Amino acid sequence: MPRTDPKKATAARLREVATREHWSSWQLSGAIGEQCSVGLLQAHRLARGWTLEDAVAKFVQICVHTGVRDAKLTVQQLSAFETGRSTPGAANLDRLCRLYATRPDRLGFGNDYTLSDAVIGDDEVRPLAADPSRPLHTGRTEPSLEEKAKRSSRRAILRGLLAHAGASLSMGVLDALADVRLSMADTLESATVGETTIEQLERSATEYGHAYQMSPPLTLLSESVQDFLDVHALLERRQSSDMRTRLCRVAAQLAGTAGIALVALGEHREARAWFRTAQVAADETGDRALRAWLFAREAVIPFYFGTPHAALELAERARLVAGKTPCSAAAWAPSLEARSLARLGRLADAEAAMRLARNAFARLPADQIGDTAYGYTERQLRWHEGSMYTVLGDTRRVQGPLEAAWGLYSPAEHLDRALIGFDQATCLLRVGEIGIACQAAERILDHVPREHLTGIVVTRARDLLAAVPNRGARLPAVRQLRELVAVGAAAQ
């Protein structure tokens, strides 16, 4: 069976979106170039759905129609032009521009030096310097058409995520609204970001922190990355030192929020990349608490999807970065160390780390203990303590913390409640209640809303099944849970 070319499949999907949302051919080509990681010349061909043979045939037709009958272009030559192994001469470049109804820079050859402004001299009009190594900070920098096309395609894709989460507006309408909003923002803000804008972005980042337990991961990912795009655009402009620091802080928080959503979705590799980006932004702020928070959040990835050694290393790093700063990571990091140490069978070390977490939690200011994302709450501390005892197999001491944590979470905080439920089911499994444990896990999967039934939840269910002893493998409850997990995995 022939394999499907992923680039062609992606291009076909983007052509459908472009038709539905009335993109220009340049927007479509820019989106294909970015998402398929191909040059602009190849992107134009894929935007039309042509094979190399199709493009060569149409190139010949262009030549005939313009009176050039001896022009030649082979499939091999066009492929070399597309991959950068060769460059078309002036005549062939002109014909390729005719073929794709565009200009050379939009095919990836040369640059567009068209000016939106000019500098008036004594007796002449002097063009602005085109040297990219000497940027002029004379006002707002106009994004290139290529960048505009990329931003539009990114926004369209992010809107597509929202479509799966029940959004009622079409992507075309939302993009039109965004264009109007950004145009007015550019006019009002000129070169620097306004106080109103930065305050709104800071509030948005905070709201994502409060909402991440209740908002479906896809929605959280889409909305936080859309704001991240806005922050990116603002950081490309000249900003004061204070404003740049504030923007970098918001960028780090938004990138961290995207990482949190990706962890929930089970996309741990991409999550790591977003946490790395967040750390780069946080480095510019000099905020130890923010950097420690990001390391602690990243440690969750190997804790669920990797090795306890890797989780322990990142958690220790978070604790050391936090130092004596009274911040959430000062309590959260050692609690994660405790759970990682428990998985390594280091009982005494695990309990010592949990004591450190409890002591640090007692010193946290009020604003740090009311936020499950950027802070560290009592319900999280209780759950993590119970989770440690679950891993250690101490069923006598586990129930109190887990039951307390369960009672402190609201019914709408789906993710952590599901993970607490799996810890409770694991305890039942450890005392030999195989059927009851699997029934409890089945109830968790049944009650978690579909949009929250993501990779991390399914992974915990699989872990529970993997821990079922051989003597219980044929129990009806075990078979039912296995079937339900298979359905949940297929639905992702």
Describe the structure.
This protein has about 500 residues and is mainly α. The protein has 22 helices and two strands. It has a two-stranded antiparallel sheet. Strand 1 (about 120) and strand 2 (about 125) form a beta hairpin. The two termini are about 25 Å apart.
Question: Could you write a compact summary of the structure shown?
Answer:
This protein is mainly alpha-helical and 492 residues long. It has helices spanning 6-21, 25-36, 40-47, 52-65, 75-83, 90-100, 145-164, 171-189, 195-211, 217-235, 241-264, 268-283, 288-305, 308-322, 328-343, 347-362, 378-392, 395-408, 414-430, 434-447, 455-466, 476-491; strands at residues 119-120, 125-126.
Keywords:
492 residues, mainly alpha, elongated
Through-space gap between termini: 25 Å
The gross shape turns out to be elongated
Overall helicity: 55-70%
Radius of gyration: 28 Å
Q: Please give the order of strands in the largest beta sheet.
A: 1-2
Arithmetic mean of pLDDT: 80
Q: Counting H and I runs of at least 4 residues, what is the number of helices?
A: 22
Beta content comes to: under 5%
| Structural category | mainly alpha
Spell the H/E element sequence: HHHHHHEEHHHHHHHHHHHHHHHH
Query: Major beta sheet, specifics?
Result: 2 strands, antiparallel
Stretches with pLDDT under 50, minimum 5 residues: 115-141, 164-170, 187-191
Give a count of the beta strands, DSSP E runs of length 2 or more.
2
